[in-house]
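Customer escalation, tier 2.

The customer says the design service returned an amino acid string that "doesn't look like it belongs to this structure." They asked us to rerun it and document both sides in this ticket. The original structure tokens are below, unchanged.
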């Protein structure tokens, strides 16, 4: 299991510490290191949910709330965002106040693998670049399935491992060398942006991840590849 730091504590605790450490610089780094493409990916995800007009959404591993804010384009929708990093949530609440979304989005500290919500609560669930940080992936996915309403939709955005030449080679070089160096310089955390590529390469993407979604009970699952396979949307329903 890949962890951010060389410590005895569990992955969950280390991930929370890492994001607390980089919270103030996270948005800048996220947009710069992805060349702003991450915004387009979240927009596509929300567009796929719009036709269902979900009344409420749970945003897993919400971070500073970018996915939740994008979901405000769905009329009359409210969002609950949860994250294990209080530092990220504090930054997110500042953004909500600045953008006038505090009445429609609530950010809570919470464990994605032990959700404090009743069964069949949410019409949709989103997760952006967070499920690969789960300590127990199947447990987290099972909890997402539990709190989703019958026929509700899940939309998970994650990095993938492109396979086509030369994208595979360029992506590999960028993730292994450029991204960790830039991330270390800006975030001042030596481990955070080394952990990122390691966690992406360990993550069971593509068909392997669809099998995990199916195993915990999701139906009609599919993968939508984005930007030459650099990222993927994983869709399913309860």
């Amino acid at each position: 299991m890949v962890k951010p730091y060389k410590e005895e504590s569990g992955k969950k605790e280390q991930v929370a510490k890492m994001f607390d450490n980089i919270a103030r610089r996270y948005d800048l780094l996220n947009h710069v290191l992805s060349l702003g493409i991450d915004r387009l990916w979240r927009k596509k995800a929300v567009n796929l949910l719009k036709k269902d007009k979900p009344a409420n959404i749970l945003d897993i591993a919400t971070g500073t709330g970018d996915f939740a804010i994008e979901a405000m384009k769905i009329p009359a929708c409210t969002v609950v965002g949860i994250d294990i990093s209080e530092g990220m949530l504090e930054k997110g609440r500042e953004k909500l106040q600045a953008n006038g979304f505090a009445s429609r989005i609530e950010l809570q500290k919470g464990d994605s693998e032990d959700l404090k919500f009743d069964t069949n609560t949410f019409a949709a669930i989103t997760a952006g670049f967070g499920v690969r940080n789960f300590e127990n992936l199947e447990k987290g996915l099972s909890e997402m399935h539990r709190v989703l309403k019958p026929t509700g939709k899940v939309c998970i955005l994650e990095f993938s491992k492109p396979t086509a030449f030369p994208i595979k080679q360029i992506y590999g070089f960028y993730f292994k060398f450029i991204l960790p160096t830039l991330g270390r310089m800006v975030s001042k955390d030596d481990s955070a942006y080394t952990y990122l590529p390691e966690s992406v390469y360990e993550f069971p993407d593509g068909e392997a991840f669809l099998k995990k979604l199916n195993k915990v009970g999701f139906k009609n699952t599919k993968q939508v590849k984005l930007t030459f396979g650099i990222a993927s949307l994983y869709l399913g329903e309860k």
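Tier 2 assessment: The sequence is consistent with the input. The first helix runs from residue 11 to 33. The mean pLDDT is 93. Sent an explanation to the customer and offered a walkthrough call.
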